[in-house]
Structure formats: C-alpha cells, structure tokens
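Quarterly update from the structural biology core.
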Amino acid sequence: MGSAYDSLARGGFIGSLKRDVLLEASRDIEYLGTIQAAFLKAGNEAREDAVDCTVKLVQDLMGLGLCFVATWSATEPGSHEELKVDASEIARLVALSNGKDVFTYFVVATKAGEEWVARYHALVNDLA
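Predicted structure, tokenized:
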C-alpha cells in the first residue's frame, strides 16, 4: 500500500485530496465512501489499495487533530457522534461504506480543522 499512497503524495494528489476532504468536512461532512471513490479514480495502483489509502489519509488528518470519524446519532436525529477508531476499524467502516451503509460513516472537521480552513480561505483571498 505504501507505494500507491507515496506515489500519489509525490504527485500532489494526496495533498489536494486532504485539502478537499477537510474543506468538505468543515462545510458539512465528508463520507468515507467519497474519499475511497477518489482513490478508485486515481489509477490502477491506487484502485487496488483504495481502502488502505483511505485509511492512511483519514489517519493523517486525524493525527493532526483536524478531523474525526463519526456516524449519525442514535438518540438525536440530525446530529452525529464521534467514533473512537484505529486503522482496522476505519478499514471496516470504509468497507461498509460500499454497501448499504454508504451514508453512515463520515469525517467531521474539528475546531483545529475549521481554523485551518479559515487560514486556507484567507490565503486564497490574499492571492486572488
């Protein structure tokens, strides 16, 4: 898996995808299946390792404190609850996101993630 992810990172794909995931997660939510779909479209090598690449990307963002994995709240309709997940659990949730649970698991930006997005928008506006 490392070679597909590393190759995509060298080409700029991973950085751009992290940005896109975080921007969407800050606006609303970003489904795990959507992240995996980006890897499925990124070429043969990434397609073969799409679940592992998705896990790595999500773990990278979580490791920076920019987002967390969540699901819909069972007690408060329209709300979400954070899931405590490790790599194997993220992989399991990504696999579930290909079936009937496509809209069940997602990432949400943290306060630090929202601050990153605000800095990103300020930088883009400064460059415009």
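The radius of gyration is 15 Å.
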